[in-house]
Design a protein that fits this description.
Elements lengths: L7 H4 L7 H5 L14 E5 L6 E5 L10 H16 L5 E5 L4 E3 L12 H19 L5 E5 L2 E3 L4 H5 L2 E4 L4 E3 L11 H8 L4 H10 L2 E3 H7 L4 E2 L3 H13 L6 H21 L1 H13 L1 H11 L2
Parallel strand pairs: 2-3, 3-5, 4-6, 5-7, 6-8, 7-10
Antiparallel strand pairs: 1-2, 8-9
Helix pairs in contact: 3-4, 4-10, 4-11
């Protein structure tokens, strides 16, 4: 996921969003105003919980605190035996742009290690959750942050946004677990093309290749479509359904845990590389 937003402007319309400029505004983060970085809302009629990334001024770029809060939220949803979860954002046009670049420039190595470890923890918790999950993608989902979308069981996207992992465009390998997750929802040949090119799909392209399941007219429609999907499991015993889901995803989930130490060490080494640090600093200074 590293550097996920550094070249977004080269891949998508520059008018769509100024990824770098907004993701560097940590001084304006929601933590400064005591707002939650992750919000939850339970639908009293359905019992479904909507979990939203809530750092819109920074395009929902991830800080350590935000990922830790997300992990805690996923644990809370699980502990309450939720009938289903919808993942979305409070932003108007961006789902997430990946890591906050300020977390990557002259970082404290221990904090950087914890940052990526927290991200992998979230990946595992979401992928391996017992409860059904759906993503209402109401904006651009670029880089490693888009993995959270792929970890959900159902994906609904709004028109005219981009989604994909562009790491190879930045000289970084896409993790094996991310590739395997994509192969669970897309044809293997298409996955190979996408990850080797670092390709970012339009909404329409994503639907065509199976990366998303539906296109909604807007966020409200996306939420409604996600609720319709989750409702399909109302008559299915939750525990049996959840365990069966885990059996299907066990190989990838186990791999995330088994390779966590290695993956984090590789990530930290790459970010601390002087060449990457110079590149990051030059982007901030623009």
């Amino acid at each position: 996921m590293a550097l996920s937003c550094l070249k977004v402007s080269r891949i998508i319309n520059q008018n769509a969003f100024r990824c770098l400029a907004l993701s560097t505004q940590r001084s304006q983060s929601t933590s400064a105003t005591n707002d939650k970085l992750i919000t939850t809302e339970v639908n009293s009629k359905t019992g479904f919980v909507t979990v939203s990334f809530n750092r819109p001024k920074a395009h929902n770029s991830f800080t350590l605190e935000m990922l830790q809060e997300f992990a805690n939220t996923l644990d809370e949803v699980d502990s309450k035996n939720s009938r289903g979860m919808i993942l979305t954002t409070t932003s108007e046009n961006v789902f997430t742009t990946g890591y906050d670049i300020r977390e990557l420039v002259d970082p404290d190595p221990e904090r950087l290690w914890n940052l990526h470890a927290a991200y992998l923890d979230c990946c595992h918790k979401l992928l391996y959750s017992l409860y059904p999950t759906a993503a209402a993608i109401n904006g651009h989902a670029i880089g490693g942050g888009s993995y959270f979308v792929k970890a959900c069981e159902y994906r609904v996207i709004v028109p005219n946004v981009k989604i994909g992992m562009n790491e190879t465009q930045l000289g970084l390998a896409i993790p094996k677990t991310a590739i395997l997750t994509m192969k669970n929802i897309m044809a293997a040949r298409e996955v190979e093309r996408a990850v080797t090119l670092g390709y970012v799909y339009s909404s329409e392209e994503a639907l065509k290749v199976g990366l998303v399941d539906e296109i909604a007219t807007d966020k409200a429609d996306a939420i409604a479509k996600c609720e319709a999907f989750l409702s399909k499991f109302r008559k299915v015993p939750p525990l049996a359904r959840g365990i069966t889901k885990q059996y299907f995803r066990m190989e990838i989930a186990d791999m995330i845990l088994a390779e966590k130490q290695k993956d984090v060490d590789v990530f930290v080494k790459a970010i601390l590389d002087p060449k990457n640090q110079r590149a990051l600093k030059s982007l901030i200074s623009r």
